[in-house]
Amino acid sequence: MIIADRKPFEEIKELTSKAKNILIAGCDSCVAVCLASGEKEVAVLASELRMQRKMDGLEGEIEEIVNVRQCENEYVDAMRDKVEKADLILSMACGVGVQTLAERFPDKLAYPALNTKFMGRPVEPGVWKENCEGCGHCILHLTGGICPVARCSKSMLNGPCGGSQGGKCEVDPEIDCGWQLIYDRLSRLGQLDALVEIMLSKDWSTSWSGGPRRVIKESAGV
Amino acid sequence: MKSGSNLEKVLSSGHFAVTAELGPPKSCDPEVVEKKAEILKGFADAVNITDNQTAIVRTSSIATGVIVARKGLEPVVQMTCRDRNRIAIQSDLLGAAALGIKNLLCLTGDHQSCGNHPQARGVFDLDAIQLIDMVRRMRDEKKFQCGEEMSVEPRFFIGAAANPFADPFEFQVIRLAKKVTAGAEFIQTQLIYNVEKFARWMKMVREMGLHEKTYILAGVGPIKSAGAARYMKNKVAGMDVPGEIVERLQAASDPKAEGIKLCLDIIEQVRAIEGVAGIHIMAIEWESAVPEIAERAGLLPRPQID
Amino acid sequence: MNQITEDFEPQIVAFCCRYCAYAAADLAGSSRIQYPPNVKIVLLPCSGKVDELYLLKAFEAEADGVYVAGCLEGTCHFLTGNLRAKKRVQYVKSLLDEVGIGGERLEMYNLSSAEGQRFAEIAREMTERIRALGPSPLNQRKSKEGAIK
Prior knowledge:
The complex is a heterotrimer of chains A (222), B (306) and C (149).
Chain A: E1 2-6, H1 9-16, E2 22-27, H2 30-33, H3 39-55, E3 62-67, H4 73-77, H5 80-84, E4 88-92, H6 95-104, E5 109-112, E6 114-124, E7 127-132, H7 148-151, H8 178-188
Parallel strand pairs in A: 2-3, 2-4, 4-5
Antiparallel strand pairs in A: 1-6, 6-7
Chain B: H1 6-12, E1 17-22, H2 30-40, E2 46-49, H3 61-70, E3 75-80, H4 86-98, E4 103-107, H5 128-140, E5 157-162, H6 169-182, E6 186-191, H7 195-207, E7 215-220, H8 226-235, H9 243-251, H10 255-271, E8 276-281, H11 289-296
Parallel strand pairs in B: 1-2, 1-8, 2-3, 3-4, 4-5, 5-6, 6-7, 7-8
Helix pairs in contact in B: 5-6, 8-9, 9-10, 10-11
Chain C: H1 2-7, E1 12-17, H2 21-30, E2 39-44, H3 52-60, E3 65-70, H4 81-99, E4 106-110, H5 116-133, H6 137-148
Parallel strand pairs in C: 1-2, 1-3, 3-4
Helix pairs in contact in C: 2-5
């Protein structure tokens, strides 16, 4: 799922300082699971903002709304009544949600309250890690189900580099060396031969390097 | 004087500047470069050395620039953000300055999907404006992008590109202003075939006073045939080739001669526009056209300034 | 401003677990132990029931100070409720700091149902702390306006 994290309050305070009526729009999908959005988080931010704005002598109302997914027109369009009354929609969705709001409500400001981080999953309570970079051409079958693109700091396809020590990455001892993980897993599976082959340079045109991407599914309309 | 380059001297002394373009070869043959330099020498104040233009691998712009300089022709080294991050760019710029390069044109660069290695991962750590800002700070503040100080700074005359035919039309001038604010001291424009639109763009440039803060060199170039014109019109992004240009070349008995005549006409028209400080002649793989164009446009001899 | 401080009677909300602090308050009452009337008690089935929003809403409702009182660590009726409460209090302290109200206006206490004296002590301690800090920044604005009138 998409992992996000709330912006520091100072920054949110700054970007809402000129608005009068603010609608805080949460999303109950990915970012709710990583505790960045959802009803509780929306209510907490609303409460913080109400108090800060009262102290700063700012007028206006803070409204709250949470819908199932902020990345789908149908859900977003249903917000229209509340949006009408706001000068600013402060989105607590991922970047996709913010852009959906901007597109559906062209006359309203839609600002992000979160920093969208990556595609990943929870590894222990309160900790999420990146797993997928969406490179557009999956090679997990070659690397023991551990992605070198997302989990090696250099996205090396023929790793690990000389900076791998004790299973950790040279970038940060908190980061596991992705290639150590791949090696361990393939070794366990008895498939180390797979690592002997040179993996040729990757076609990055399917990734971010090819510009904004899209997926078309012919069968979708069937 | 920021760099003391010939181009900077010509422009700052109020002469109408002429720059040309020299594309490095798709090989490591220095003779190709030397031959092109021989052709252009004496007909331009400086020549741009392209940096893997259209994302096609060629000899490096810095190495080619050094070969050109040895031949007595001043290079304008082009630097793009596509293939290098800020570390590599700064390192290469220090190297270029150490080898005597004085003019630098800062570009974002064509996307790798345009070239012969569409599988390549694009870098784009910086964009052109960030690059200009970084180079200016290196020169004027003696600082690396991270803020660390350096003992000897690279003294470049900093240039940038502008496309009067890109969209949104009004915003392109604002973007130009950003480049000027970042530190661009000269601007070379995209090839101009739609003079009327260029004139409108220049009007906006003057309204913002940008022509007084930077030297604007109008991009011009001869077209060899109606087919080439049609290709540029339909296939090349960011180009504006009006239909009558294609027709004019189509109707000509000698299209090459007509192409040069057309280029001369455009030079005459853009020279008359207030705020145009020079021309940038792009005749890639037709370098031999440059002396004729410079001659017939009455731009010779080139000024010698000490 | 001095005058406001002198006249200032803090409004304090205490979220109390029924198995310890609430029972201790009862004991304090029946033992006729005095504690400041500034403290308004909210009964919780366990301190672990306390939610970040309860705490924030109390401040929004113009409390000058808030505290949560749960069982001694290791003796929670629901095993870990008081430990959860402790984490939430820590978290809300950070929110109050970033908003500008100040985390020191919120506290977590632990006591047993046998400690009527301790309950009164905590009430006094918190009242004095908040009295020294002055009105919540949320209320200061109003106090100032009130003073002008």
